């Protein structure tokens, strides 16, 4: 693995760092393609759709290339497992999320034949749909394209 390009670490840093804290890592962030955003919902499908829409609009993946959309979908699901503690449910369980997300595309391996990979990170809050009763949560998913 290329120690200079750990896409999961980069995605996680992007969702956790405040704007003023990012300058130290700026050279690392420039080595990859990135899409960032925020999403809040009690509907898991809306969370997935928000990330997919942002990534496609940013040009991070080619919408008409199935393997790229497929890789993104599985990386999102893996990251959401961390946020939801393995239970892919929000509103059905009377809980809501407020998340920042980062999707990073890069080549984390030295051997070019390993190709490109996607990392999806979520960081924010999850909890009962009552303001102030949430707690922090984080999730990371990585998939090859």
UniProtKB/TrEMBL annotation:
Write one Gene Ontology MF term: RNA binding
Gene Ontology biological process terms in this record: L-histidine metabolic process
Cross-referenced SUPFAM superfamilies: Hut operon positive regulatory protein HutP
Q: Which UniProt keywords apply?
A: Activator, Histidine metabolism, RNA-binding, Transcription, Transcription regulation
- InterPro entries for this protein: Regulatory_HutP (IPR015111), Regulatory_HutP_sf (IPR036482)
Question: What is one Pfam family matched by this protein?
Answer: HutP
The record's family statement is: Belongs to the HutP family.
What assembly does the database describe for this protein?
Homohexamer.
The task this protein performs is described as:
Antiterminator that binds to cis-acting regulatory sequences on the mRNA in the presence of histidine, thereby suppressing transcription termination and activating the hut operon for histidine utilization.
- Output this protein's name: Hut operon positive regulatory protein
Q: Which organism is it from?
A: Virgibacillus pantothenticus
């Amino acid at each position: 693995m290329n120690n200079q390009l750990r896409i999961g670490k980069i995605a996680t840093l992007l969702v956790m760092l405040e704007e003023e804290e990012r300058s130290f890592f700026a050279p690392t962030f420039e080595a990859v393609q990135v899409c960032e955003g925020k999403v809040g919902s009690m509907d898991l499908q809306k969370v997935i759709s928000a990330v997919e829409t942002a990534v496609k609009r940013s040009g991070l993946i080619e919408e008409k290339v199935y393997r790229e959309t497929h890789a993104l979908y599985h990386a999102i699901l893996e990251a959401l497992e961390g946020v939801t503690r393995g239970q892919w449910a929000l509103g059905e369980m009377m809980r809501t999320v407020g998340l920042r997300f980062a999707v990073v595309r890069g080549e984390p391996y030295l051997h070019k034949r390993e190709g490109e990979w996607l990392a999806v990170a979520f960081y924010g809050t999850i909890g009962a749909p009552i303001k102030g009763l949430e707690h922090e949560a984080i999730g990371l998913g990585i998939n090859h394209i």
